[in-house]
Specification:
Elements lengths: L17 H7 L3 H4 L20 E5 L6 H12 L7 H27 L12 E9 L2 E10 L7 H4 L13 H8 L4 E7 L8 E11 L15 H14 L6 E5 L2 E7 L2 E6 L2 E5 L5 E5 L3 H21 L15
Antiparallel strand pairs: 1-2, 2-3, 3-5, 4-5, 6-7, 7-8, 8-9, 9-10
Helix pairs in contact: 3-4, 4-6, 7-8
């Protein structure tokens, strides 16, 4: 029997994400015009309820402006200080401009032998708790490649350059809390492989209401949500086993995820063990998708993709 739904009902007629599944399965052209309906699960719930804000970005000169508008929309219900909001809007704009360049590069076939697919996407969500809460913004594109020099140290643009400073701005405003990782798209009828360039902003606890934080749903219900979220990202054939307060998700021969109580753990391709609280559901799903794609890249190309630059939040 399915655990109670978030609204406390007995779950009759309730499914984890019927509205989200329909939206995520829509053709790309439809996804550009249809907004997610009223949330029925955490996969498309508001940020304040533990969900994620996901929108497609246009592949034209309005990309940065649309990203700025979407970022403001995503955080409109959060009491974020104006200075922090300005920094976030600026960085979202720079990431969008950067990904537009990458997407056009892929379309022209400058570095890839395949046609580009999918459209850029912006994702915004909260991770952590009111004691240590961060606002995460990611911009996805289908250009899989990434300049590794940026991960270890960034060359500054010449002083007389009129472009090339976008990621320097992100690096400065985020105090180095940004990076890139392989992932899969969220929108459209297929889950396009690509990368997400991201930044995080710490949210001052003093400006957050007492009731803001991760909803304390039951671990069993959250596991159902996690399995549905991973399935929506194209991870078919997940094998699951539950026993007492423990669950196991066998995602691939390289990736097995364990739940003990409300704590999730798995071994990343880097060899390090990741450990997150299940109530940080969007972040858990993102990290698992990243680990899956890192393993796929390592197996296909014979190399490892570096770990995320920002340490994972410890389970609370």
């Amino acid at each position: 029997m399915r655990p109670p739904a978030p609204d406390g009902s007995n779950g009759a007629g309730y499914s984890p994400q019927p509205s989200a599944a329909g939206f995520l399965a829509a053709p790309l052209a439809e996804a550009l015009t249809v907004l997610p309906p009223r949330p029925s699960g955490l996969v498309d719930a508001p940020l304040t309820a533990g969900g994620a804000f996901v929108r497609p970005l246009p592949i034209d000169t309005t990309c940065a402006a649309v990203a700025r508008r979407f970022f403001r929309e995503a955080v409109s219900d959060l009491p974020i200080p104006s200075a922090l909001l300005h920094d976030g809007v600026t960085m979202a704009s720079e990431l969008a401009a950067n990904t537009l360049h990458a997407q056009r590069k892929a379309e022209l076939g400058a570095t890839l032998q395949r046609a580009a697919s999918g459209v850029p996407e912006i994702w915004v969500y909260l991770r952590g708790t009111t004691r240590s809460c961060e606002l995460v913004c990611k911009v996805f594109d289908s250009e899989r490649g990434w300049d590794g020099a940026v991960q270890t140290g960034m060359d500054k643009a010449p002083v007389d350059s009129v472009s090339g400073r976008g990621l320097q701005v992100v690096d400065g405003l985020s105090a180095g809390l940004w990076g890139c990782h392989p992932t899969l798209s969220r929108l459209g009828s297929t889950n396009t492989p690509g990368k997400a360039v991201w930044f995080v902003l710490p949210v001052p606890p003093a400006v957050l209401p007492d009731d803001l934080g991760r909803p304390r749903y039951s671990p069993d219900w959250l596991m159902d949500e996690l399995e549905a979220m991973l399935g929506a990202r194209g991870m078919a054939g997940i094998m699951r086993a539950d026993a007492g307060g423990m669950s196991v998700l066998s995602i691939s021969r390289h990736l097995t995820v364990w739940r003990h109580g409300s704590v999730m753990s798995w071994r990343a391709p880097s060899g390090c063990y990741q450990r997150l609280c299940l109530t940080d559901l969007v972040e858990v799903a993102e990290q698992i998708v990243c680990a899956h794609e890192e393993s796929a890249l390592a197996e296909t190309n014979g190399f490892r993709v570096g770990p995320l630059r920002v340490a994972d939040l410890a389970a609370s």
